[in-house]
Amino acid sequence: MSKSMAFEEPIVKLREKIDELKEIAKNADVDMSEEIVTLETRLKQLETQIYSNMEPWDRVQVARHAQRPTTLDYIEEIFEDFIELHGDRFFGDDEAIVGGIASFNGQPITVIGHQRGKATKENIRRNFGMPHPEGYRKALRLMKQAEKFKRPIICFIDTKGAYPGKAAEERGQSEAIAKNLVEMAGLKVPVISIVIGEGGSGGALALGVANKIYMLENSTYSVISPEGAASILWKDASLAKQAAEAMKITSYDLKKMDIIDDIVPEVAGGAHRDIHVQATSLKECLEKALKELNALSEEELIEDRYNKFRKIGQFIEEDEV
C-alpha cells in the first residue's frame, strides 16, 4: 500500500481497489464499469466524511506532508517572469528562504518565502526550511527594495521555526528576526502573508507582519510545535496530539480568534493532491487582497497593519486594590 497518513488509510485502500478493478477491466476485457462507479461513489462519500472531520493532529500531518507544495511551486503556478535574488549582502545566501521579483496580473511584485525540500538531499540543502539569520536579512533586503520601488510584497510562510544552532545564534538570529518585525511594521507598501504549511514560532512571524494574513485550510500557525509544547508542559513529546488540540493551531482556530483574515480552502486530502487547483484558489485570494490594499495610501497601509496587530488578544483592566 502507498504511504499515507493514518486517518487516510481507508481512502487509500479504496483508491487502490478502484485502480485494481480498472486494471482488470483493461487487461481481461471485462465490463466492470458498474462496480467501478459504485466504488467511486463510495470513495467520494468517504472523502467527505473523513476530510470534513479532521482533528488538529490530522491537519498537522497534512501540513507536514512530504509532497506538500512549497513556495517555489506556488511561484511557478501563480506568478510570471520570476527572477530569484540571492544574498543578504552581509554573510551569504540562505537557501531556506527564497525571494525575488515577479509579475502578478501585470503588476510588479516582490515575493518571498520559506523553502523546504521534498527529498533528503534537497532538505539538507534547504536546511529543512529552517532559516539562518542571513535568510531573514535577505528577506528584509528584498522588502526594503520593494518599498523603494513601490512593489507590493507577498510572503509564503512554511517553516518549523528559525534554525536554533550555535552558528545561527552567533550571527544574530534573534536580532535578525526582531529587526524584521520592526521594519515590516513600517513598510509603506502592501504586505500579504500566506501560511502554506507549518508556521512555527518567530521563524514564521519574521515574514508574517502583514496587512493581510491568510492560511491554507490544513496549515498550522503557532508559537511552538505540538511536540515541543508537549515536552515542556508534560515532559512527554508523545502527547503531541493532545497538545495540538489544546494549542488552537489550526486555520479555523486562528480565524475564530481574528488572528488571520481568512482561510483558503484546500482540495480534498490536502494541497498536494492538486497543485493547479490549489494555486488557482490562492491566486483568487491574492487578487482580492491586492485590489483592496492597492487603494490605500502609504499612511493608511501602516495604520491598517498597526491596528491589525494591536487588536489581537484580550486584556481585562481591574480596579486597583
TrEMBL record:
Coiled-coil parts of chain: 11-49
Function, in words: Component of the acetyl coenzyme A carboxylase (ACC) complex. First, biotin carboxylase catalyzes the carboxylation of biotin on its carrier protein (BCCP) and then the CO(2) group is transferred by the carboxyltransferase to acetyl-CoA to form malonyl-CoA.
Assigned keywords, A-Z: ATP-binding, Coiled coil, Cytoplasm, Fatty acid biosynthesis, Fatty acid metabolism, Lipid biosynthesis, Lipid metabolism, Nucleotide-binding, Transferase
An annotated Gene Ontology molecular function: transferase activity
Gene: accA
Domain CoA carboxyltransferase C-terminal: residue ranges: 38-292
Domain of life assignment: Bacteria
Entry-linked Pfam families: ACCA (PF03255)
Organism: Ureibacillus galli
Location relative to the cell: Cytoplasm
Entry protein name: Acetyl-coenzyme A carboxylase carboxyl transferase subunit alpha
Entry's transmembrane regions: none
Main localization (coarse): cytoplasm
